[in-house]
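One thing: could you explain this record?
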Amino acid sequence: MTRRILTAALALAALTAVGSVAQPKPESARPNVLFIAVDDLRPQMGCYGDRLAKTPHIDRLAAQGVVFDRAYCQQAVCSPSRTSLLTGRRPDTTKVYDLDTPFRKNLPEVVTLPQHFKAYGYHSQGMGKIYHGGLDDAASWSVPHWMPKRPGFGPEGQKLLTRLRQEARAAGKDLTKRSNQPRGLPWEAPEVEDSALPDGAIADHAVETLRQVKDRPFFLAVGFIKPHLPFVAPKKYWDLYSREQFRLADNPHPPKGAPTYSLSNWGELRAYLGMPKQGPVTEDQARSLIHGYYASMSYMDAQVGKVLAELDRLGLRENTIVVLWGDHGWELGEHGEWCKHENYETSTRAPLIVSAPGRKANGKTSRALVEFVDLYPTLTELCGLPLPEGLEGTSFQPLLEQADRPWKKAAFSQYPRNVARMGRGMGYTLRTDRYRLVEWTLPGKDFQEYELYDHQTDPGENVNLAQQPEHAELVKKLAEQLHAGWQAARP
């Protein structure tokens, strides 16, 4: 009785902050949510048209749901992107632009997506990487968030990392600072079982948790770490591929006419052992990095398959919405870049698959423009819960019934950058059906610089058209659309 009263009180409190007066569905009629987050996953799986990728489990999920081919994060780095998705707010509202700022510093009373489900009687549980590491949110969960206690390398890689840390301490480096921490090898193929590494342990924990919560409505968030650096996966996943299969990026150069500051220096990768501190990686290194990325992706796919198999075994699939998303894109040599941290298509576009039982569009691919801030209102509506006030996205539930229906006019992302000799600026990008516009600004200064890419003629975003006189009117029109903001782009 006490638990029921507490649940009702929480629901009533949450209802005072909602913008919809619709009554929530009774608990017995609500679907479960299996919420699968994947770190640094670009849309490179078989279901996204990559014939080389070995991702059978994600591909099978895609066949049972809707694949969103043009889904965009709001900032292409872990914490800002995850914060935006999980709060339903954009970075200029959360004020989270880096890896260190907790979102409750600026939004102390915000109700997160899992917290909203918890308030309406769901068991909300998170494991693995959901929020960025070190920034977990206790209010989101019914029980404490769980992380695996597994090394990120195989035995030899772990020995090397331990030695590097000892040497750093002996040299007087403060290892509490992220910049001083040795990263170890950029890739490794240890001969270990899946569960010896973190993602295997996360899958095992998810399976056990499903068995425990199967008889009550649940919001289960499972966050896999690979294919994030370092590219460590059991050797059997490396053996799925041959190095000779991999083609290097065909545009290993900056976009012609783009501002020099628009690109990153991919410092995240440079911190790993053997990576160049300046300049490009060698062709051999590039091939090893791509091989490692694919091996890590296949390893993660196998763990997803383990969790989905248990969902099926327990007879829960027909009453469970399964969502799989990557927090942003990742570069594999395009524009000479690695990692993310940019406003380009390779960084802002990420995979999104939604499998909601009984939806007419299941098995189809949608080319509609959707944004990660849209996922909060979408899941809320699918589960019959009221919509909280303050959300800055739009439910794409109608696309689950008709994947090709007219939809948003644009998607919006942003990334901060230091502009040489001028200060800290912000790049705001608008992605329409055909174009990408980037506007670079400096707070308090009369400064604007533009990038314009035509995806119809230049899908790789290799030539900036913004400075060409014949495109001046188009730049002006798209800039006006950018300034009108996300509200004006809604369907």
